[in-house]
């Protein structure tokens, strides 16, 4: 059991963070190609760390705050999203140059040499970054804009504070070179990219609405502190362990993939992939392709007619017809943000989708080994279903799986005729009076027969749903979708 838990945890972690893993591999491939006199190859590794963080920001970066009021509908703009990502990446570049200004502050103050690069450059990139964020205003914008703290005041104070902090970290590096001040700059970078896409309008909305228990709204600071202090302390601890092991007092660019791995890993911790509340699936009505028959008719025939040459359906030999049925399957144990949010709703919310199906209670139940949410395997509970549209009376249900899971015992094959393709016995699940649950995966075939009429459906697991309003409009499958009355 422990081995299975470790196996599923590793596989789920790799699957959910595959994008970050690929980015780290690309960083390893890019590192030998960087010239020694390039900006990324600097000895303090500040540009390299920001470059690695910029890639994770493009893949995962998002705000830390609570966002807009959950009763309001957001606007989505593709151009606004691109400009928002560009603003986050631009803020990282600006931090590098403000940091360089702090390191070279003595040169700027006493000499006129190099002041253009040290002063004009960070000012220019900061202005461009703020302009990009301003132009991305249409993305995730809501209609309600109550009175409160002015946006210009918050942006001015925030920008000034971040710039002063970056310059101060640069001065600390100049005065105390063995302090590893780049860890502090990394913490500031994580904080900046989460703050820069926030909206003062969202804060005003929550302050005006208050909480459900009639208290004043107080912004949560945990995400901000966790992302910044955790990344700063983690990188400092990495350098501290290096000193203990006697590998030197500074990580050179030849070992830059090690701190880059930490940046990528911490991005996966801070910006985890959201868990859906439900998954939209489709049930494709299908007909058998005739088993081992070579000549397959292109005309859809009634399903109550036995196909020529075969009495058993092979999941890998079917044909879809045009009839499809939408199916919304909830993810059990996942949290619904609209219902968990402590903010007071502006109007009554809809109820969550009912997790019942004509076959029984269907949901994506947590993984039995790791107890974590998963949306790859549907579990249908046939016992104790409260669905009024359940099939009753003379019924027969069979589930055919196209592929077996690794480790499943290979029992004898089942065939109908000598020329028909055989299927494993474990790939067929019969439903009788003692069956309590069904397991459905992508590509499974449900054969449902009642009152002498049989129909078959192929399961296709589709896109996840993350917000309750998107799920509230779905109609659960009904009896008439499956049985010709």
What does this structure look like?
The chain has helices at residues 2-16, 18-30, 46-60, 78-103, 105-110, 115-135, 151-175, 182-195, 200-209, 222-244, 257-270, 337-340, 468-472; strands at residues 278-288, 318-330, 361-363, 377-381, 395-400, 413-414, 423-424, 428-431, 437-441, 445-450, 453-465. Helices cover 39% and strands 14% of the residues. The longest helix has 26 residues, at 78-103. The protein has 13 helices and 11 strands. The protein has a 6-stranded antiparallel sheet. Strands 3-4-9 form a 3-stranded antiparallel sheet, with no helix packed on it. It has a two-stranded antiparallel ribbon with strand order 6-7. It has 2 domains: 18-270, no CATH class; 278-481, no CATH class. It is an alpha+beta fold and 485 residues long. Residues 291-296 and 306-311 have low confidence and may be disordered. It starts with a helix and ends in a 13-residue tail after the last helix. α2 runs antiparallel to α3, α4 (78-103) runs antiparallel to α6 and α8 runs antiparallel to α10 (222-244). The chain is globular.
